[in-house]
């Protein structure tokens, strides 16, 4: 299926909607316990159970509209399903809390493996939206690799030492803000090694 561009705001809503819904749901149900089939479940587990199909639905809609899901989106979806289901099945919130750790370890590990081979796997998935010389891609990949590994360690430290509520705030706002700030902080790198897109009007002249 060919890739199709959609409204950026709609794309953001589909990507961030489940996360926002999870956060709002947790705030409403965090102090409530539910007795289901003789087993008591805390609000966090109930919200996690609702988050899984919501994530699947939003990903399916995004794929239907664009004809494409990135490898990062697919891996994230799989881990949400696996770790979320384990938390619900075993009635243990630790599995879902470990999900960001696994995601960032996996991404950091893949980028690190590519660097050992002298390649930038980041370039493969981002070159279309961020034209840049090879040297720049290698520097950015190295920085992002260490950044992801740092986020994995930070997530472990937060969920193991802080309350569930603090972790939810960290996951919803801290991780998102961290990634945003990282890329903003690389503006100097983009300016130094950036190239004009082949699709841009100037490049065609």
UniProtKB/TrEMBL annotation:
Q: Does the keyword ATP-binding apply?
A: no
Instruction: Show the stretches that span the lipid bilayer.
Output: 12-29, 41-62, 74-90, 102-122, 143-161, 167-184
- List the GO cellular component terms: plasma membrane
Task: Report the protein name in the record.
Answer: Inner membrane-spanning protein YciB
Keywords in alphabetical order: Cell inner membrane, Cell membrane, Membrane, Transmembrane, Transmembrane helix
- Say which species the protein is native to: Parasedimentitalea psychrophila
InterPro entries in alphabetical order = YciB
HAMAP family under this entry? YciB
């Amino acid at each position: 299926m060919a890739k199709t561009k959609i409204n950026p705001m709609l794309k953001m809503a589909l990507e961030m909607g489940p996360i926002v819904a999870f956060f709002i749901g947790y705030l409403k149900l965090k102090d409530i316990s539910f007795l289901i089939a003789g087993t008591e479940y805390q609000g966090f587990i109930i919200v996690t159970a609702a988050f899984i199909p919501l994530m699947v639905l939003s990903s399916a809609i995004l794929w239907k509209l664009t004809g494409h899901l990135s490898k990062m989106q697919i891996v994230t979806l799989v881990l949400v399903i696996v770790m979320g289901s384990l938390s619900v099945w075993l009635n243990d919130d630790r599995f879902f809390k470990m999900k960001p750790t696994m995601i960032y370890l996996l991404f950091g590990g893949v980028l690190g493996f590519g660097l050992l081979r002298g390649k930038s796997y980041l370039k493969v998935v981002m070159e279309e939206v961020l034209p840049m010389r090879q040297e720049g891609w290698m520097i950015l990949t190295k920085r992002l690799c260490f950044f992801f590994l740092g986020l994995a360690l930070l997530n472990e430290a937060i969920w193991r030492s802080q309350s569930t509520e603090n972790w939810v705030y960290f996951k919803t706002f801290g991780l998102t803000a961290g990634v945003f700030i990282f890329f903003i902080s690389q503006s100097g790198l983009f300016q130094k090694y950036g190239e004009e897109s082949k699709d841009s009007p100037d490049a065609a002249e």
